[in-house]
Design goal:
This protein is mainly α and 207 residues long. 65% of the residues lie in helices and 4% in strands. The chain contains ten helices and two strands. The chain has a two-stranded antiparallel sheet with strand order 1-2. The radius of gyration is 17 Å and the shape is globular.
Length: 207
């Protein structure tokens, strides 16, 4: 998927988050999620933090080669047993709860309504440049967008489950997320497990 298509997909996903935010009642914002002690408000704040982070990423262009050539390569590293997904899990969870308490629902919705689209417009002008990915890697911008698609898709399913709503995610987001997750997994183990030829415990691929 070219960067233009990825940005269009990301825009569609963030628009879905915006619309959910605008339609939710106070009771829905307070509902528990399947993610530990996060309520919907914390989940929304967490994804909004990635949107805000992306608005910073587009200002971090570097004239260097990527350290990781694909989103899957970086996600694979993050999700190793000793990777950042594990070592920073408690800090990420606490940060989401803190942001949920610090910002109003209107402010969080505005992140998806204004900050996100502005960053996407900047990314369209930049193209597939290399950016400093939060100090963890040098990554092409289109691959950073792929991580954003995965985050927005996976957590949109979390949100809809918490709301008791049927899964309704943009098709391109689902397809791209499935492709990135499949690429992140060890290929032989993934193929063998997916075709019922192995009971190897390769899941979850990421947390």
């Amino acid at each position: 998927m070219a960067i233009e298509d990825r940005l269009t997909t990301l825009d569609e996903l963030w628009s879905a988050w915006k619309e959910h935010g605008r339609s939710m009642t106070d009771e829905q914002w307070a509902r528990p999620t399947r993610l530990g002690d996060w309520d919907v408000r914390s989940l929304y704040a967490h994804l909004g933090g990635w949107v805000f982070g992306f608005s910073m990423l587009v200002g971090q262009v570097r004239d260097v080669d990527p350290t990781h050539h694909t989103a899957a390569a970086l996600l694979r590293e993050f999700n190793r047993p000793d990777g950042l997904a594990t070592s920073r899990a408690d800090k990420v969870a606490a940060g989401a709860r803190e942001d949920a308490a610090a910002y109003s629902t209107a402010q969080m919705i505005e992140t998806f309504a204004t900050v996100g689209p502005t960053a996407i417009a900047t990314a369209r002008r930049l193209g597939p440049v290399v950016i400093d990915y939060f100090g963890h890697a040098m990554l092409r911008l289109d691959e950073a967008v792929s991580i954003g698609i995965v985050e927005a898709t996976v957590h949109l399913l979390d949100l809809q489950q918490a709301l008791g709503a049927p899964p309704e995610v943009p098709a391109a987001g689902l397809a791209h997320t499935a492709a990135v997750l499949a690429e992140t997994a060890p290929p032989v183990d993934f193929i063998e497990a997916a075709t019922g030829r192995s009971a190897a415990g390769i899941f979850p691929i990421m947390t």
